[in-house]
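Support request, priority: normal
Reporter: lab tech (M.K.)
Component: structure prediction queue

Hi team, I submitted a job for Tryptophan--tRNA ligase from Halosolutus amylolyticus yesterday, and the status page still shows it as pending. I've pasted the exact input below so you can check whether something in the sequence is tripping the parser. The sequence length should be 526 residues. Please let me know if I need to resubmit or if it's stuck on your end.
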Amino acid sequence: MTGDDPLEESESGEPMTDGGAAGADDVALDPWGSSSVSDYRKLFEEFGIEEFDEVLEAVPNPHYLMRRGVIFGHRDYRPIAEALRNDEPAAVLSGFMPTGDPHIGHKLVFDEIIWHQQQGADAYALIADLEANSARGMTWEEIDEHARNYLLSLLALGFDPDEGELYRQSTNREVQDLAFELGAEANFSELESIYGFDGETDVSHMQSVVTQMADILYPQLDEPKPTVIPVGPDQDPHVRLARDLAERMRFFKVSEAYASFELEPEERALVANVYDRLDPAEFDDDTLRCVHVAEAIEETPLEDLDVGADVLGAVLTKLEEAGMEPVRPRTRFFDRRATDEAFDALIDAIEGEKRVYESHVDAFDLDVAAAEELAREVEVENGGYGFQPPSSIYHRFMTGLTGGKMSSSIPASHISLLDDPEDGYDKVKAATTGGRETAEEQREKGGRADECPVYELYAYLLSGDDDEFAKRVYDECVGGERLCGDCKEQAAQLMREFLEEHQEKREEVADLLEDADIELESPRRR
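Reply from support: The job had stalled in the queue. We restarted it manually and it finished. Here are the results:
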């Protein structure tokens, strides 16, 4: 649940929020790997990530990372945007695995947390020390040193510890207790499928995954609320598993239904489609029954039903077994893991016509949205969590200054937030660019800003909130007016100024960190 950074631009100079790079092989998302995602578009197709551009207008005061397409995708961000617009409860959380110095790629995640906090969300930042120890083999002494540096930079950039929460996994008892409960809802075959774990995988590594699930749901322990996790796309497997576990922890599952028996989503869609085409007045006693729906399905050409033969067979079997049972739309509360007291409380809370069965309750006067709200209310009142599935936003990986992915293990590829400002200046001056072979060719054909790590520095960091400046740099580059030498000199000076200011601010917030409610030294040190 840790993240990195980048942006690509179209020939017109507008942010390419659909991903930019094309022609990549299959996308593999490995939270502990070193590979970067080379084709962001495939994330939309293969993993169900939505384009952030589609929700941008709904976001109040969007951060420049959102406006410029650096934040390119999301899962279910709409509830977050709505909560921020309406000043309703919301939360943001992300974690940092302290395996090295924080660099300018990590600053993107810092900025995303801080922006959400400034918009009114409860903010959480954690040190993933259990993950660093189990998955990366870091010693507790190393973890403590790096954790302090991450926290100082986070505070220096504007995180308010009085209004937010800082913690480390290893000392947060509530997180560990929640992880134990979540672990009962996950199994090895699932972790094997998602993460590629096998018989050689350490149990502590697997335990750290469940701990991360608890981290993601931790902001909802006091009350259910929309929660967003800002990450790089390689961390998406964690988000998907957390969303699944949030649902499994719920007391009730709410869905639409048409008869007393349960239908799978594709089966339900088929019955709904046929039901909408039939008029109950055409049948005896004005009642549409299961056998009538079955007959209508059998009379419809398979190509018009748009379902597979297995779905069709399952639906027909269920309808024919139900026989003359009336078909009536209703909202179903299915008992997942509710206590007897919670199930009885739900029955009492449902107003209007209802039918009570052994493992579910059908309500005929409630729509799904109202039923979801009621189910969560009853659950929380009866000792459940009522988790809302966590949302996520995804930012691009920042290109390394030497090309390829920015990596903490390759000093020349990244700029640490702890680098001497003069070293930061020198790294930018030595960086790879998207320039042409000669100045004459650059003036004639223009530079390739979309392939330039130096331009990314302007877009992600050095331009700050000034969109006009970022676009002017791009336009001057692709128009042949801006040559790489002058461009790098300007960027290098801006980077030196940023590092100087940031490191001064780190010194200023040192006392703030000492006073913060977080253990700076692990009790596991020996």
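The chain is about 45% helix and 10% strand. The longest strand covers residues 91-96. Let us know if anything else looks off. Ticket resolved.
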